[in-house]
Write a structure and sequence with these properties.
alpha/beta; Rossmann fold; 18 strands
Length: about 500
Amino acid sequence: MQDTVRRILTARVYDVAIESPLDPLPRLSARLGRPVLQKREDLQPVFSFKIRGAYNKVAGLDAASLARGVICASAGNHAQGLALAATRRGAVSTIVMPVTTPAIKVAAVRARGGNVVLHGETFDEAYAHARAIEAETGAVFVHPFDDPEVIAGQGTVGLEIMRQHSGPIEAVFVPIGGGGLASGVAAIVKFLRPETRVIGVEPVDAATMKTAIDAGRVVTLNSVGVFADGVAVLRAGDETFRLCKDLLDDIILVDTDAICAAIKDIFDDSRAVAEPSGALALAGLKAWAALNPCTDNDAALIAINSGANVNFDRLRHIAERAEIGEGAEALLAVALPDERGAYARFLRLLDGRSVTEFNYRWAPDGAAHFFVGVALRSGPHEKEDLIATLQTSGYRVEDMSDNETAKLHVRYMVGGRAAGLEGERILRFQFPERPGAFLRFLNALQPAWALTLFHYRNHGDDVGRVLAGIQVPPSELNALTEALNDLGYPYVDETDNPASRLFLDGV
């Protein structure tokens, strides 16, 4: 830690970075009953903290190294940070990006002086190509997180927090991808105020650092969720793992809905739009505060808003999920007798709550199955109490609020039941966003296998979300599994998911 602290105290970042403000979140503070502040790294010139580490690394290079140029592989904020840092130091920068990188990000890197090389369909392929260029040209490779100088640059965020808030700080919450920001912030905070907790936050489907710490060694995950793409890292760094293992007090895991709710909290209080990884720390702060009652009304909780590089297209998805994430909406599958007056009786049981969504289609089984969204008013147990009331009144109810397939697909597809359809498998895929992906999927299916359902939904990510139905004889299920494994698209069999069974199954 001592070496990291020394590097942080001597880091050179302010040629390009600003000392970002530490702003209060008054509405959220009132809700939680304790002071909550956000560190505004979204206001940096590249709209992300990444400029700090990239510039500190480049600023420390000698003239001979700068003359060889710098290189990295990145499809996100590190790419922009390194491009700007190199331009300011008069060095040539090469940024290798996957061919699937959204055009807006490619344009942003070029606008900051970076020479973009598009190569490969995945980050791993781009990374390998960048390393090959490094070996061929002698350019200096700048790692996005596992480098002492990069870690030190990111650590200046923590140094500023300690200087900006002289009062007591109960905890600082830091997003974790590879761990560069978390390890730098933890080092300086623990050095200056060892009594202050430093808590890392990761998405539940990208728990790279927590998995490594639990295992006692760096682990490479098979896959990670891409919603919070800024922290979608398969493997933590060796140096960042060492520091985080020793210095972090805890790691909190949060889901997509909690992140969306945190984005809304930031917007409500500051009119700023954070990217998902930018709001990750605040989502963790809220989860931690719910489990840890306030013991000092003056002790602040601080979340680092790490960035604002969000595609506009994704805001639709964020808005859809924020209400669920903050417990303001319940999604329910309800069965009731398909008879006159049944709907009126159901609505009366809602006790004046607003219906946010209502999807239904007739089925010949004497019961009506519908998908309903209900606005919740207050109280941690309101949803459970409502479900109990409906069940006591004779309704069959299943909670779909945490059912990913229901929220992504089925809510838009109620009515897709097909009478007499046998042998149908319902599968949820992640398709790469590139031309020919759907055709490749179709070509993987044998001619005798019928495509019975196909629903595609994209939210500005690098992958498209697809729900597909495939009719396959039971004797050929193994062949289907082999074909899909060869295809290589990540998928989950959702045939037995209650959302599929109630609203899509053949009858």
